[in-house]
Every structure is written in C-alpha cells, then in structure tokens.
Write a structure and sequence with these properties.
Blueprint (H helix, E strand, L loop, with lengths): L9 E7 L8 H11 L1 E9 L7 H6 L6 E4 L9 H16 L4 E5 L6 H9 L3 E6 L5 H6 L2 E4 L33 H10 L7 E2 H11 L13 H8 L2 E6 L2 E6 L4 H4 L1
Parallel strand pairs: 1-2, 1-4, 2-3, 4-5, 5-6
Antiparallel strand pairs: 7-9, 8-9
Helix pairs in contact: 6-7
C-alpha cells in the first residue's frame, strides 16, 4: 500500500536587512530548515549601500532574492513598506503556509497579527532587544543570539562567575518560576499535577519568546529541577510536575 508523505510547511522568509546583521544568516536558515521548506527568500533594503554590503555578500549562500529599496523621502522607510506589500500578496496567493519575519523592529507587529488572523503561521526572528509587542504578535519568536555557534569550551578559570564571558546573558533559573506557575494554572488538574510535555506545549502558546537556551538548558525537565520550586514525578519515563506545596509550619 502506498503511503503518502506529509508535505512540509511552505514558508516565506522576509528579511529586514536594515534591522538584522548578516552574521545571523547561517543560524537563521538552519533554524528555518527545521520549521519547513522555504521556497520564498526575500531580503529588503538598499543593498547597494556600504552599510548593507554584508547582506549582499551572503545572498548566493542562501538563495536570497534581493529587494533593493531606497528611502524615497526622509522618515519614510520604503523597505518596510515593500516587505508588507509582498507579505500580503503572498498571503492571498494561497501557496504559502507561514511567514518568517526577520527583524528587530516593532513596526511589523501589525503585519504579524494580520497574517495570523488570516490563518498563517508566523515565526519572528529578532535580537533579544526586540520590543515585546512584536514578539507576542508571533506564533513563535526566536532570539537570534541563540542561533549563533556556541563558543568552544575551555578549562575552568579561577575567576568569579560574574566575570566570565556571557554570564550576564543567561537568565537565572528562578526567572522561569512565574512562567511555569502561570502555565500550570492554565492546565486543569484536580491534584495540581500536569504532564511535562503538555507544560512545554502551553509555554509555546502563552510565551512565544520563551527559549530554554536563554537559561542555559537544553531540556525543560532540567530547568524545572534547577528551580527547586516544583515537585517532579517520573514513572516509566513519563514526567509530570506540580508547584511545590509549602507546609503550614514552613509558612509560619
């Protein structure tokens, strides 16, 4: 019997070159390859300018099609306008399932919301400085810093942790406690227990910018354990968690 292979999501990649550095290009397309097939790859900006020379150089590496734009008037960003117009044309063409909006600019918040309202999946790619309004408007927001190659590990140095490179970038595990408790409160359970897999799914829905790597972890279970704020039950490989209950004696 012939088995039909499920079709990958067809994605349109729209890059705001004026707001994103080309040093992220390799990481962006490695991540997009995990999300689906990207037949449309457009990059916007005045690529003839010296400031965007880097993007012009990586065009052939990622099969990018340039959309050269110049500022027609002071204060008017023609590149942003062209990106929005192309996005709506692609949406109504009906052959694209989702959009990868690559920018750290909050100006694309309304575009992301409109695309989602029309049923398209929206993946935002931007630096951690990207305003929350744009991050929340996407189905999922991916921090570009997390896509850069990891620096090689060296032998421990006798230096206080606060002085080590990148130590200020990572969030402390405790910062994830309110997020995890918020998710658990949304999952209906008589005894407070919730499957860890379901918790992970709900985090993606409620907090599109949540990324384990921002806390220095690769697995959600490891982060949960490190917080020390949750009870963990593991049976036959299945993990469930609930907020740690404080005894009345401890509360006093």
């Amino acid at each position: 019997m012939k088995v039909e292979q499920q079709r990958s999501s067809r994605l349109a990649v729209l890059i705001d070159a004026e707001n994103v550095s080309p040093r992220f290009a390799d990481g962006i397309f490695k991540k997009i390859a995990q999300l689906g097939d990207a037949p449309v790859r457009l990059v916007y900006g005045n690529l003839s300018s010296s400031s965007l020379k880097g993007w012009a150089e990586v065009l052939p590496d990622h099969s990018l099609e340039r959309r050269d734009q110049t500022r027609s008037a002071k204060g008017k960003n023609s590149a942003d306008m062209a990106l929005v117009i192309d996005a709506m044309d692609l949406l109504h063409d009906g052959r694209i399932d989702g959009f990868c909006l690559v920018s750290s600019d909050s100006d694309f918040t309304c575009l992301a919301a409109r695309l989602r309202r029309e049923g398209a999946n929206v993946y935002g790619f931007g630096e951690k400085k990207t305003p929350d309004c744009f991050q929340r408007a996407c189905d999922r927001f991916i921090s570009l810093e997390n896509l850069l190659p990891k620096k090689p590990e060296f032998a421990p140095i006798a230096v206080p942790p606060s002085n080590l490179p990148n130590s200020k970038i990572l969030k402390p595990p405790g910062a994830a406690i309110p997020i995890l408790k918020k998710v658990l409160s949304q999952i209906k359970s008589e005894d407070g227990w919730a499957p860890l897999g379901l918790v992970g799914q709900q985090i993606s829905k409620l907090f599109s910018d949540f990324d384990l790597r921002s806390y220095g972890f690769g697995k959600l279970s490891n982060l949960v354990r490190k917080t020390g704020a949750f009870e963990i039950d593991e049976t036959n490989g299945a993990i469930r968690i609930r907020a740690r209950r404080v005894s009345k004696t401890a509360a006093r």
